[in-house]
């Protein structure tokens, strides 16, 4: 298993994985330079991304191929995206989730009111178009 920054050449594999696990993918290319991927024999099997808006960050698409789960890959990606957030000057990370509330709660994220998200985050495509209104909004200070 290797990890690297996402590239245009890996976009098709990233999109395929996100489609497979049911996560939004239509705007991934717009934030590609802030995505990290996990590879097994040159195949994208894990992905995580970050959108940065000043000191606010939006955690995107933490996904591991079902055949690769329970191996600690998601935790490695989570730690890598936190380092990326620190490098980019992010002070708070926000996210929306339909299925991973427990996972992120264990990592210090707290539920919040989606309408109280800061404007940069609230105006993202993730918030306005890609995630359903039923998605849980969570936030964590760094």
Detailed description of the structure:
The chain is 29% helix and 31% strand. The protein has a seven-stranded mixed beta sheet with strand order 1-2-3-4-5-7-6. Strand 2 (35-40) and strand 3 (43-53) form a beta hairpin. It is built from five helices and seven strands, in the order E-H-E-E-E-H-E-H-E-H-H-E. The model has no long low-confidence stretch (mean pLDDT 95). With 142 residues, it is an alpha+beta fold.
Give the helices and strands, then pairings:
Blueprint: E1 2-5, H1 11-21, E2 35-40, E3 43-53, E4 56-64, H2 73-87, E5 92-97, H3 101-105, E6 110-111, H4 119-122, H5 125-130, E7 136-141
Parallel strand pairs: 4-5
Antiparallel strand pairs: 1-2, 2-3, 3-4, 5-7, 6-7
Structure, briefly:
The chain is α+β, with helices and mostly antiparallel strands and 142 residues long.
Enumerate the spans where pLDDT stays under 50 for 5 or more consecutive residues: none
User: What fraction, in percent, of the residue positions are helical?
Assistant: 25-40%
The radius of gyration is: 14 Å
> Strand order, biggest sheet?
1-2-3-4-5-7-6
Give the overall shape.
globular
Question: Main attributes?
Answer:
142 residues; alpha+beta
């Amino acid at each position: 298993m290797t990890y690297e920054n996402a590239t245009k050449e890996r976009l098709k594999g990233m999109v395929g994985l996100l489609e497979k696990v049911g996560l939004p993918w239509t705007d991934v290319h717009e934030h590609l330079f802030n995505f990290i991927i996990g590879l097994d024999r040159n195949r994208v099997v894990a992905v995580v991304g970050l959108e940065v808006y000043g000191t606010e960050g939006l955690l995107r698409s933490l996904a591991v191929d079902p055949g690769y789960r329970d191996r600690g890959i998601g935790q490695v990606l989570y730690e890598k995206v936190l380092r990326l957030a620190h490098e980019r000057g992010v002070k708070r990370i926000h996210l929306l989730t339909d299925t991973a509330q427990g996972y992120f709660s264990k990592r210090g994220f707290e539920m919040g009111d989606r309408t109280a998200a800061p404007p940069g985050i609230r105006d993202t495509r993730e918030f306005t178009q890609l995630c359903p209104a039923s998605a849980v909004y969570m936030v964590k200070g760094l």
